[in-house]
Amino acid sequence: ESDTASEISFQFNKHKKTPSIGSHSSDMASVSSVSGSVLSVYSGDFGSVDAQGTVEFALDYDEKNREFQVHVSQCKDLAVVDEKKGRSDPYVKTYLLPDKARMGKRKTSVKKRTVNPIYNEVLRYKIEKMVLLIQKLNLSVWHNDPLGRNSFLGEIEVDLASWDWSNRKLNWYPLKPRSLSAVNGVDHRGVMNLSIKYVPPGSLGKMRPKNPPSGEVHIWVKDVKDLLQLRPSGVDSFVKCYVLPDTSKKSYQKTRVIKRDTNPVFNHTIVYDGFHTEDLKDACVELTVWDHEKLTNHFLGGIRLGLGTGLSYGISVDWMDSTQEEVAFWQEMMSAANEWIEGLLPLRSL
């Protein structure tokens, strides 16, 4: 399988465990970082100028090549970023929403020392028309800074479902301040309903035939609600699970694929053995939801269950970043051995 999020690991031989027969195991033999961050539309915005001016562009869909085309012509009367020098170095950037990571960004060249830049460039997306019609186009203008401290100059958002596709002419549109939803970081990706349980070593008593010689973490993935709909027919989703820092094949588990459903019911239980109680401070259960396609799976959202300390076995790692809700859920499991802890957690960008 090929996924749009990459996995990077390096070996860290600590707390090596022996897999037990008949259970999915996590030997936690490597420390890794999962770099699948979905960047904000506004990432890198260091400016505080007010949006002003207009942008001229046209939209078209090439049926033969199955290509969405954004013809960016020019901008007029943009805000001045460097008032001392009276200059802005603007460029135009586009995304298809709601899933920014799926199609990625496109951007024009940078025009230096002008508030009236002329581009005459075409930004292209290879995408099926039916998929395009459930997207929104976010077109924003930015000042380019050599040190990466780019400044937001204005934007326009176009609902492509209601766009008049017979209109292929260049038209002027006023640039607006950023939307409140983006400023407040609203990024609703759905909600996962699950239960987790920790079974400490030997805690079930000597008379129990299945009493684990080492601890076990049980993860019961019940269902997910309100997934991003990437196609008119819905989403073909499945859930991946790793116990970080281990990203080996022994750690990797997944559910079956539920087709054409933005509210999939999985009812799937995963068991990881090899846990000692002290490992719960350094491990992190990562559950990610993916849209399944033949060539590439697309990331929809995920959760990370752990203490969120930023450290794993004394090493600083970026995946120990659990939210307050996720940390509280994990702590409740740690304090209630052998009991199922039920939770409803929002999916997020990882």
Automatic annotation (TrEMBL):
SUPFAM superfamilies: C2 domain (Calcium/lipid-binding domain, CaLB) (SSF49562). GO terms for cellular component: exocytic vesicle; plasma membrane. InterPro entries: C2_dom, C2_domain_sf, SYTL1-5_C2B. Residues 51-173, 188-320 form the C2 domain. GO terms for molecular function: neurexin family protein binding. The keyword Electron transport does not apply. Its main location: membrane. The keyword Repeat applies. One of its GO terms (biological process) is exocytosis. It is found in: Cell membrane. Keywords: Cell membrane, Exocytosis, Membrane, Repeat. Gene3D superfamilies: C2 domain. SMART domains: C2. PANTHER family: BITESIZE, ISOFORM I (PTHR45716), SYNAPTOTAGMIN LIKE 2 (PTHR45716:SF8). This is Synaptotagmin-like protein 2. It comes from Chunga burmeisteri. The lineage of its organism: Eukaryota, Metazoa, Chordata, Craniata, Vertebrata.
